[in-house]
Write a structure and sequence with these properties.
This protein is α/β, with parallel strands linked by helices. Helices cover about 50% and strands about 15% of the residues. A seven-stranded mixed β-sheet has the order 1-7-6-5-2-3-4. Helix 5 runs antiparallel to helix 8. It is globular.
């Protein structure tokens, strides 16, 4: 999905947030924004929003000396989500269709911003969100495919919600004859996206038959990569591929034979999908 004009101010807001999380001074914040705007003025916008964000985040790291500005936030989000894990595990276990319920919970995890919410508010938000229906719902296609599948590729999204994804991965491994789940995470820090540190914090590395792959563009200073022949080969080498979250949809929407599981969080993505902002989406790209 190519960036649109609305994506540019969004990138600037994200960069300012990263700079503040890195405890940059006001003067440093202004310098980061000026350099980011200079970069955005000269670069070709005919790219995905994620790719356009690579250089601005490099500017933040260089100017602040902080490798991972979101590190503490990610740790806190993971812990708050882990506090919900036993209750959500029971909901899945007691469900007449655990796979369906686990998919819904994984999607709902994409909604919640754990930061300002208390435990009670998180629980209430979860309960309300679980009542929502998918605006696009290709569950029946997925269920037919998963019954025959032996391997699944799962592109992880954000810290915190990875705990919700864990429930889905556990159902896939426990309820079906799945030989391997391959979990794809960032090769290094990028915004609040999942890295190996988050995988280890939430216990996903302890799940049997789960393998972790890393996204990289060959640059050791970057945890993200442009869409490449390599990622397409990963999709083709697995029976099913699931792309979680809005950012991954933006980057991989042109790839075929992949299921997108997300919440449409902005007007640009909502319009691309033909849904409303806030809608749950489980869409298969044939």
């Amino acid at each position: 999905m190519k960036a649109r004009v609305e994506c540019i101010p969004c990138i600037l807001r994200q960069i300012l947030k990263a700079a503040r999380l890195a405890n940059a001074s006001k003067a440093c914040q202004m310098e980061i924004l000026r350099e980011t705007m200079e970069y955005l003025l000269k670069v070709d916008w005919n790219e995905t929003p994620l790719v356009l964000s690579l250089e601005p985040y490099r500017i933040v790291r260089l100017k602040t000396g902080v490798w991972d500005p979101f590190s503490q936030v990610k740790h806190e989000f993971n812990q708050k989500a882990l506090n919900q894990y036993p209750r959500l595990k029971k909901i899945v276990h007691d469900s007449p269709d655990p796979l369906r319920t686990a998919i819904k919970i994984s999607a709902v995890g994409n909604i919640i911003d754990f930061g300002p919410l208390s435990r009670k508010e998180i629980e209430e938000t979860l309960s309300q969100s679980l009542e929502k229906k998918f605006a696009i719902d290709d569950y029946e296609i997925f269920r037919k495919r998963v019954k025959k599948a032996k391997t699944i590729l799962f592109f992880a999204d954000n810290a915190g919600e990875i705990v919700f994804d864990r429930l889905l991965l556990e159902v896939l491994l426990d309820e079906f004859d799945m030989r391997r789940v391959t979990l794809v995470v960032r090769g290094g820090p990028f915004i609040n996206d999942v890295t190996i540190k988050d995988v280890e914090q939430v216990g996903l590395d302890k799940i049997p038959n789960l393998e972790v792959k890393f996204l990289s563009n060959g640059d050791p200073n970057s945890g993200v990569y442009p869409r490449s022949p390599e990622v397409i080969s990963w999709v083709k080498s697995h029976d099913i591929a699931i792309s979680k979250g809005q950012g991954n949809f933006e980057n991989f929407s042109g790839i075929g034979d992949i299921f997108f599981l997300l919440v449409a969080k902005c007007e640009v993505v909502a319009e691309e999908l033909g849904v409303r902002v806030g809608d749950l989406v489980f869409r298969y790209n044939p």
